[in-house]
Every structure is written in structure tokens, then in C-alpha cells.
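Student: Hello, beginner here. Can you help me understand the protein record under this note? Any guidance would be welcome.
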Amino acid sequence: MLAAIIMEEGHLVQVYDANAWRKGDDTLREVLLADNWEVIALGGITTAYGSIKHIVSIAGDICPEATLVLGGGVLTSLPREIMTWLPHIDVGVIGEGFITFPEILQKVDDGDADWANVPGTISRRADGKLVISQQRQLLDDLDSLPYPAWDLFPLEEVYFPNSASLYSEEGMLSTRRLDINSSYGCSMVCRYCFHLGISGDMKYVENADGDFNVTFDQANDYTRTIRYHSPEYIVNLVHHAREKYGVDFIGFLDENLMTMDKFSNRTWMKEICRLWHEHDLAPKKLADGTWSGVYWGGTSHASLCTPEILKIMGEAGCSHLVYGYESFAQHVLKTVGKGATRKHNIQSFFWTLEANIRPIPNLIIGFPIEDFDSIRENVLAWEELGIIVKPHFATPYPGSEWFATYRKEIEEQYGGDLESFLLDVGDASAISAVISHNFNAVELVVLRDMMLSKNIKRIDEYEQIWRKNHGLPEDAPSTIFQKPLKN
């Protein structure tokens, strides 16, 4: 998207997709030496920090005259820390870059390296002091954005050969998949989720010296900025991708498609589906197992979906929906901020199956008040649904409310070295910092294995050992509170 925006303004752009090619440092150095680059820009989420740190170090050494720009969630969540840890970065983009990045390039063209007057940036003064400029406002009219510059990326070489996804049969058979964003933001306040800079909760705070920093605003009653493309823009974009690239599957990367449907008074998704049919995108199975048209999948929410809209989506080619159920234990769900109940989770699962859409359940363990009861309730719910889910671990990613709440404890787990946490954090399938009040890292890993084997007998046995170790009688609640928690 950023490449498309700046090319429209006349800038010359090349992309090296390090995540796609994975060619190693020798190829990276060849790319950096291939031209006299004025700007080298990169970004990503926190889990990419290790790769970003490595790339920035090499780029800074090879191209010392280039302006190095870093954006994305990794920078937005901890701007001062990231700029300190990555001294080669000249300017960081805090929050959304649609307007900020072109303004940075214009200043490069003008030979002006005073970034402090560009809203939404962090930069270094001549004396090395970090300066955060005023906050960048979000773009209101998403339909004003151009289509992504897919031509700059290795579609035929890398992306299309790796189209298959395990979420549905159609996803596994896809050979030409592209992914799009139709919205930015989510109405939920999930306390483990990154919100800063795209949907609310980001607060600029000023200290006594007049310097700003970015923090998670826990006192703003969870204000939300919900933005989404019109159905016409979305379907025209998919039609364009179908005509130009022959796509057979579209993945919606949105946080929560049902938020947009609710905010539009239940018209947005219906109109997308209607236009999907009107543009002849609704898939039709062929005798050889392939199909004409475009299947698609995305995200849903247990408390916001309805049987009616799911049926309409299924008829328009929706093959799967990912549900962040997180837990089937009601006392845990109350603290997560997702707005769903155990009943919502169960009914949405069967509603989705009845609409001929495959529901993909996500589960998390290691929440602050996770206990033996919640562990058992999750396993019993699997029995009821006929599924097994390998849970992720509750990970306090920077930019989430729980990172702000538990930052001190996180730093203590890494000997006071917060950067070590960023280098350790992954996709939550492996354990990193623990925010559970009741279980340590070893216990969570073993309990997950016991869950997957549905070995409730061993879980019950360990509970008795755990209670003895913590001095809790058999009839006492199995929860040790270290911090007050919001309901």
C-alpha cells in the first residue's frame, strides 16, 4: 500500500521482500549495494524485531548515507526503546504511515532532515536526544487509498506457489491466493491484543521536560476508531486481483470482520456478498475439483455473528472463519475483554458449520487468572465440539493492555533487559514472558501437553501437588491473585 501511494507521487521504488525470499545475508548485501538508495524503509510487528535488528545493522553499515526509516507495530509500541536499541534508524513512523511516509520522502527530496515537524515520527536531534513529534491523525477515507502494488512482490515465484492454507479444503487447494485488508480496528478491547495507532488506546504523554512518549491509555474507557472500506472498493479490488493475477482465493486479514458488520447496522457484509455474486466472483466447483470464481476466508466473532449473515457468507464463497474463542471458562472470559461467553463460543461454532463454513477455533492458556478449573473446562468443551485445539500461550505483546499492566514483571523475567523479551517473543506457540498468577512457564507447557492428550486424570493429580506446594486446602479456590484485575 505504501509503495503504491509513493509511486503515485512519482518516487522510484524497489522492494526486497526478505520474508518471502529468505536468501540470507549475502543476497541482502547485494540488494543494498545494487543502487545508490536515498531511503531504506522497513517495518513489521514485534515478532519481527530480531530480523529487523539484523537487517538494520547491515543496512546501516553498507548504506551510511541513506535515510533509514522504520515503522509498524514494532516501533509504535516502544518508540523510544526501539530507537535506542537501533541507533542506525534515522526516523521512526509511529502509528499509521499512509500520510507520514510520503511526507518523510518529500523532506528527503528537499534535503531537509528536520523530522521533528513531521507528525507521527520519532527522530534524533543533533545532540542525539530523541524527539517525538505531535500525534498523526488517522486517515478517515480508506477508499482514497490505491490498490496494493502487488507487482513489486514475488507473486509467481513465492506467494502463489505457497497459496495453500490449512483452514479449509478450498484453502488447501488454492494455488493463487492473495490477502487483503478491508478494515482497520476492532470494537473489542481484548487485553492481550495490540491496539496502538490503528484503532485507539494510544496516548501521547508529556513529561516535565516537555518530551513526549507513547503509552497504552488505560483510563480512556477504550475509545475506538473503527474504519473500513466500502463494499464497492473491496469487491472492485478483488475483481481487479482476479482479472490481473487470476486469484482463486482471498484471505481477509482484518482483526474482526463482524465488527464492521455490526457498525454498519448489518449491511456491510451483506453488500460485500451481494456484490461478490454481481461481479461473478462467487465460486462454482468444476468437475476436476477446481473452481471458477474466488473463495475467501477471514475472521469472525462469537458474540457478533448471526446464523443469517453466516448463511449469506457461505453462499458467496466464504470457506472458513477464524474464531478467537480464547477460552471456554466463563470466569476467564470475563477478564479478557472480548465480550464473548462460553455460550457464544459454542453456538457460533455450530452456526458456522451449519452455514457450510469451517470454523477455525483459537485458544489461549496462561491468562492471568488461569486455573485448574479453566484448564478442565477447555478440555470438556473440546469433547462437546468434537475438536482438539493446541492452545497458544497468553503473551503480553508490546502495545497491548497486559504489556502495560505487567511490564515490570516481564522485565524481571528477563533480568531487567526488555530487549531480550522482544528477541524472545514469537508467535505465542512457544512460551516467553508469563503473566499467569498461578502457573509458571514449565507448568503451562506441561499442562498444555496434558490438555492435548485429554489427560484430566493427571491434571487432577497435579492440582493436589500444586495445592500442597502453595499451602491451599482442597476446598480453597485455585487462584493466587498478585494484581487487581478488571472484569
Q: What stands out?
A: The chain has two domains: 2-138, 152-202+222-469.
